[in-house]
């Protein structure tokens, strides 16, 4: 039986591959929100991904294929949850 996740289009299937904390490959990338040498913000098929580190540099990006590769000292990978409603629903929800 085929694996459902691997049958998704390249832009939808999301995976991370970190080699030795200095080489990161990401699939499922839909957009790059911003980057500098300490932070890379990506929109992925599973939400916003924030990559923090030192001397980060994007080596390759192909948004049509949903792929990004970067190098540098990766210190943190964090997914941000999408906002759920307005302020009142977050306070009282």
Brief descriptors of the model:
93 residues; mainly beta; Immunoglobulin-like; six-stranded antiparallel beta sheet; 6 strands; 6% helix
Question: Which helices and strands, and how do they pair?
Answer:
Blueprint: E1 15-19, E2 23-27, E3 29-35, E4 39-44, E5 47-62, E6 67-80, H1 87-92
Antiparallel strand pairs: 1-2, 2-6, 3-4, 4-5, 5-6
Mean pLDDT: 84
Cα Rg:
15 Å
Report the structural category: mainly beta
The N- and C-terminal alpha carbons lie at a distance of 41 Å
Report the CATH topology name. Immunoglobulin-like
Strand content: over 45%
Protein model, in words:
With 93 residues, the chain is mainly β. The chain has a single domain, classed as Immunoglobulin-like. Helix content is 6%, strand content 57%. It has one helix at residues 87-92; strands at residues 15-19, 23-27, 29-35, 39-44, 47-62, 67-80. It is globular.
């Amino acid at each position: 039986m085929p694996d459902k996740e691997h049958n998704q289009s390249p832009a939808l299937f999301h995976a991370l591959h970190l080699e030795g904390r200095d080489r990161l490959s990401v699939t499922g990338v839909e957009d790059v929100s911003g980057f500098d040498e300490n932070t890379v913000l990506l929109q992925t098929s599973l939400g916003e991904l924030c990559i923090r580190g030192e001397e980060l540099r994007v080596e390759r990006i192909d948004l049509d294929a949903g792929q990004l590769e970067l190098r540098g000292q990766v210190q943190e990978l964090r997914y941000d949850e999408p906002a759920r409603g307005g302020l009142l629903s977050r306070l009282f929800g």
